[in-house]
Amino acid sequence: MIKTKKDKIKIIKLSQIRSIHHQEENKKIKSDGIDMDKWFMNPYSYIKFKYFIETSALIVFFAQFTKISPNNITGIYIILGFLSGLFLASNNDTLIFLSLIFLFTKSSFDAADGLLARIKKKTSNLGDLLDNWGALVGSYSYLCGFGVYLYNKENNFLFIILALLIILMKAVDLKDYSYHLAMYKLFKTNKKSEIINKINMKNNNMFKKNNPHYLTKIKNFIQNFIDERSRTIDIIILLIFIDNYYFNITLLNYIYFYIFFKTLLIFIGGIYITCYKNYLFKK
User: How far is the C-alpha of 122 from the C-alpha of 143, rounded, in Å?
Assistant: First the structure.
């Protein structure tokens, strides 16, 4: 089949993709006060950032020669997130090793789908939705897999119970559900713009006014300490690797207990501010 100039696909060099990707991601990170060009300030983050940039750029470079769409790459990201938890719970050394690789690498696919969409000019609301849903699938799978891994290691059924409770509390969180319900009702109304403008005017600084500074600090500490961001997950990956192949790491048990109590506090806090502080209804 002879392709005309009109049909010819524009091929972007790997160096160009890497440069575009690096600039975009570095700009995002700099907005948080982090400069990835200064490796001595953030050595671990610098190495992970470079790995993340290089691998996702390679994925996009080869994908441009195929019919693979950005949403197809998002699908791979979702599958890797699901399998990472499933394999972690398998009690099989080979599958656990694959799980750790998936957990460490899936962020490359998470970045590649958006980059490919921008290069191919195929960004979409569906793509953004699937990307966020994939993060949720990966989170639930990881938390379940981590709990079952500890059950297999310790032969203690408590970790199965904790895993189920963590997922249950996340799934039925009242604050999250109230926002989902409010958004659904907002979509059904014909006065969306008017309502949104009123919300913005009335509640721009509401949280800051109603919450003492020390409470905000405590809340931020609880949410950010041992969270599900890349740095924390990578530390846990390393600990699981050492625990599974070399010697016992009891710290993993305490990390999971902390995740449970953190989830419990957030769950109770969601009920408190929704039922007793009328946070959503004031908005």
Answer: 33
